[in-house]
Automatic annotation (TrEMBL):
Keyword Signal: yes
Domain (Corticotropin-releasing factor binding protein N-terminal) ranges: 103-228
One biological process term in Gene Ontology: cellular response to estrogen stimulus
InterPro entries named in the record: CRF-bd, CRF-BP_C, CRF-BP_N, Sperma_CUB_dom_sf
A Gene Ontology term for the protein's cellular component: extracellular space
Protein name, per record: Corticotropin-releasing factor-binding protein
Entry's transmembrane regions: none
Amino acid sequence: MGYPISTGTKCLPSQQLYKKSRSKIPQQLLHTGTDPGKLGHSGTAGRGGVSMPSAFQFQCHLVLIFLAASKGETRYLEVRDAGEDDPFLLLSEDLKRELSAGQIYRRSLRCIDMLSTEGQFTFTADQPQLHCATFFIGEPEELITIHYDFVNIDCRGGDFLKVFDGWILKGEKFPSSLDHPLTTSQRYVDFCESGDVQRSIRSSQNVAMIFFRIQQAGNGFTVTVKKNSNLFPCNVISQTPSGRFTMVIPHQHRNCSFSIIYPVVIKISDLILGHLNGLFLKKPSAGCAGVGDFVELLGGAGLDPSKMFPLADLCHSFHGSAQMKIGCDNTVLRMVSSGKHINRVTFEYHQLDLQETETRKENSIEEFCFPSI
C-alpha cells in the first residue's frame, strides 16, 4: 500500500535553474571579510525565508556546480577562476587513466575551486588573493581528510588558511549548527593558530572546505586530500540530481540531513522508527511534536536546513511508497533520532523537469520558495 504525501509541487520552481548553466560565478559570493564564519554573508533569515538577492546569487553558484557534475559519469569536478568564460571542466580521459593506474593526482588550485577526487593540490599566489575558497565533496559514505604538506603564508601580515568542517556560503552552513556534533567555532581549524600541532583535519561528513587569504605573490601552500570510509553516513550533500540512499542511525541521539540541491521528486520506500504505521502532513499545530524519532522533508533556497521550511513529517514506520514533488532549489530529508531505536530510511530521488513543475503550478506555495527571476 502506498502513502501519497502530495500530488502537487510544494515549492515554486526556480526557472533559472534550467537557464544559467553557463553563467560565470561572481567573485563576491566568497567575501571573507573579518569574520570567516560569515563567508559571503549579506543578511540572515528565519526558518522558511531567505533574502532574495543573496539566495539567488548563492543558488546560482551551487546549482551551476551540481548541474555540471551531473553531466558526466566521473566523480571529479573543478571550478575555473570566476573571470573565465566557462566555469567548469569535467574530468578528462587522461586523468581517468592516470587515477586508475594508481598514480597520485597532482594539480594547482585556483582561487575558487571544487574537488571530488583524492590527490595533492598546490596553490601559489601570482598576485594578492584576498577571497579564495576550495570546496571538497565525496560520496555519501566518505569522509574527507585534508593534510598540510607545506605552508608558506604571512600570518602576522594578515594572511590566513582555515579548514571548515562542512560548507558555508552566504552565512549559511551545512550541516546546520543543530545537526553538527561540534560548535561553530570548533568546526574551524586555523593554521595560523594551530600550526604544526594539527596538520591533518578530518571532516564529519562528505563535504569540507578551506578558505584562505594570501597577499604576497609567491606564497602559498600544498595539501593532500584523502577519502575515508564512513560506516554510518549522517549529513550528506548529494553530488548528483538523482540517486538512492539508505540512512541508518543506530541507537544514537543525533540529527542527520541529506541535501539535494535541485528541485526533485523524492520517494520514500521504507521507514523504520520503532513505531506503528502512520504519516502526518506538516501543519502549524500538528506534526511530530513530542515524538523523539521522525523524518521531515524540508524545502528552501539556501544551504542551512535549519532555515528551510518544513513540508511534511513522517512520525511512524511504514513499508510502501510515499512520494512528494518539491520544487524548491534545495530539498533536504532530515532524520531526528532520540537514540532509543535503530532508525532507518530508504529513499530515491530524481530531478524535476521543467514540464513537471509547470503542470502543477497552482499547488505551489509561493511564500516559502521564491521564484528566481
